[in-house]
Amino acid sequence: MRRRTFLEFTAALGAGATVAWSGPAAAHPKLDLIVAAEGTGDFTTIQAAIDAAPSGATTPYVIGVRPGTYLGQVIVPAGKTFLELRGLGRAPADVVIADDRANGTLKPDGTPWGTSGSASVTLNGADFRATNLTFANLFDEAAHPEIANRQAVAVLTRADRLVFDRVRFLANQDTLYLNSTAAGVIARAYLRDCYVEGDVDFIFGRATAVLDRCRVHSLDRGTIPNGYVTAPSTDLGNPHGLLFSRCRLTSDAPAATVYLGRPWHPSNDPNAVGQTIIRESWIGAHIGATAWSDFGTWPWAEARLAEYRNFGPGALVTPDRPQLTRDEAATNEIADFLRGADDWSPECTRH
Fold it and tell me: What is the mean pLDDT of residues 81-95?
């Protein structure tokens, strides 16, 4: 069973990753604050810098983060808008922002944190951006057999218009929780050139999110099944859920032991008719002929799960793997997911 150690993922890119990051991120014309673990910046913790940032900003407020490991839960309040965390290392592995709690980890008052409370980083402020860094949840499942609820979120998003550029997300179960403030509320996120790693339902939630040219790596849990890449809970009133465009889906797990996803209905909400679309992406042999799974009593066939023009050893076309038509694909491009009423187009810009 493959289990990550702290040193594994803080060194270089970690085992199995192939996303190409060729050098340091481009210098930003202005850094408003510097965080440095060794004490040479304005603050030594991420949360202190966020707390010092202005509320209600309408233009980017950039917090540069020098190489190092920053431990402790981070929360961006709803009032802290237009924040950017920019890693100042040569690669995303040089800056690691992490915590180590799971759903079943107990708070000081003796009650569990829950899935949302387990998040290392929670993003409630709109127009947030992260660049060239790593978010991780260090919870060690093997070291805590007494904890049954092992969901351990690296990042929980609730806000709209979020951008992640050259970012790594590392955990096991429930790595990346892409959510919104309430059922029926649309919140958009755009991930470009990112790396997401986990095993069970590790990209999940009701947000509208695009993963563009990302590496999506399923860990080998040593079980059958080995896991599920996605667990969308998209509200029925939202035409757009999770979109994977020109990504690479990889794994060290045996062939045909991982599912592309299963539909999550939080609190058995019948309106949570999840959508995952994977298009023009390379899929490894860890995905088999039946790529989708039921979730409890909720059948996958009643969700909005589809593929389009994928390739690779796991990109099989079978009766259990619905494919978009050309006309359907034309209305499910990146811009269709992100545009909204405000014509948001982060895929057309890059710092």
Answer: 98
